[in-house]
Structures are given as C-alpha cells and as structure tokens.
Amino acid sequence: MQATLIEPATFASVYSQEYTGLVRLAYMTTGNVGAAEDVVQEVFAAWYRQGAHVHQPAAYLRRAVISRCTSWVRRRVLERRHASVFADGHEPAYADVTAVRAALRRLRPRQRAAVFLRYYLDLPESEIAEALGCRLGTVKSLLHRSLATMKEFLGE
Which residue range or ranges hold the RNA polymerase sigma factor 70 region 4 type domain (predicted)? Predict the structure, then answer.
C-alpha cells in the first residue's frame, strides 16, 4: 500500500503554524535548542511520510514531539549514568572496548539484538519483545543468558 503524500501547500501551512510552538515544547522537555529543533524536524519528516493517514496533524505532531523528546531525555540520562562510571576522567581502555565487542560477537544474533536493544537503545523489555516478535519471558531469558555468556568470556 502506497502512502498518499501531503499536498505541499498543506504541509507548508501546518509547518508555519506549528513549528515554533513545537520547538518550544521540545525545548522545555530537552533543555537543548539544537536537540529540540532536530526532534521537531524529524517529526515533520515522519508526518510527511505518513501522508494522508494523519487526520489531525497538530495533535499527531505534538504527540510525536513528546514521544521523541522522552526518548532523547532517556538516552541522555543513560549516557550520564555511564559517564559517571568514568568520572575520574579516564575513558575505558581500548582493550576493554575490544574485549566487549569480542564478547558480543560470541552471542547468537538474537541474543546480540536483545543486548543492543536493551543496553544501547535503553528499550524496556516489553518493547524488545515486540521488536523481536517473542514473549516478555523470552526476552528476560535472552538477556540473562547473554550477560552470563559475556561475563564468562570477559572473566568476570
């Protein structure tokens, strides 16, 4: 099924009416002007791809901005949490990064995907289950076994 594209005049009209308010909304959520502008641009691009399937553009755009800002903030919190591990100013040694990558390669593709979705994208287990097309319990098992395999490989 091919999406029906939005008329350029309609897109331009909604863009000019909603852009500033959406950037303000995004800024209040992220606290970062650049991130706010990026989020809003991504949302407008997503809306354009949805075409005529979106019947209330302003409501769709607000919901999408809030959702993407929430994800942005969640990622920043995770980054800060991991950065605090290296608060002494030392980055992890190259050998450590290489060892972790080698441990990841030892995992089966589905395990590797579960670990990536959980610890890199910081997705909750329910969303990982949806992405992998499996049950929540399977995700928990995949993550548990994956971490055990990696710890064994890394000698922890």
Answer: 99-150
